[in-house]
Design goal:
Length: 167
């Protein structure tokens, strides 16, 4: 596992998301190279909803911090010139579906009233070499990592979540 992964390694397969910027090397200087821009920047800013740099504030529960591929276009200087300097744009593009072992788990999350609800679905049997089977009457422990608008230093549970299955 590369030292830069921070202990995280992706399951094999294609992810439905990609980053909306070109990765740079540690010693590179200069601005980030954006890959795609919104076709309608005003609609994209509206989709983000309330944005507040105060770390004690909370995101709007209807905000969307990603951009669908169909809502975007490849970066061009002309498209960039239409968007005001300082406009906040998503760093993630959603395109297609998960494939391979990444498709074994599906989920949805919702922020409401200051709390997250996360629902995940997966077969009880192990569908891949990185999965553990859920066995009735045997506990399985898992950790949940949160992506909080940060490239690194994600928040996570200090203790695992105990998954209890019944016969």
């Amino acid at each position: 596992m590369p030292a830069t992964s921070g202990g995280y390694w992706n399951k094999p397969g294609r992810a439905l998301y990609s980053y909306n910027f070109k990765f740079i090397h540690r010693n590179d200087k200069g601005p980030v190279t954006v890959l795609r821009l919104p076709k309608d920047w005003k609609a994209q800013v509206a989709a983000l909803s309330k944005f507040d740099l105060n770390p004690d504030s909370s995101d709007d529960e209807n905000g969307r911090w990603y951009m669908f591929d169909g809502e975007s276009e490849p970066y061009t200087p002309e498209a960039d010139a239409r968007i005001p300097v300082g406009t906040i744009l998503p760093g993630v593009i959603i395109a297609g579906d998960n494939e391979g072992e990444r498709a074994n788990v599906t989920g949805v999350s919702k922020w409401s009233n200051g709390h997250w609800t996360l629902e995940l679905t997966r077969n009880m049997k192990s569908d891949g070499r990185y999965d553990k089977a859920f066995v009735p009457a045997h506990d399985l422990y898992m950790w949940v990592a949160v992506f909080d608008h940060a490239q690194t230093r994600h928040a996570s549970h200090n203790r695992p979540v105990r998954v209890v299955t019944q016969n």
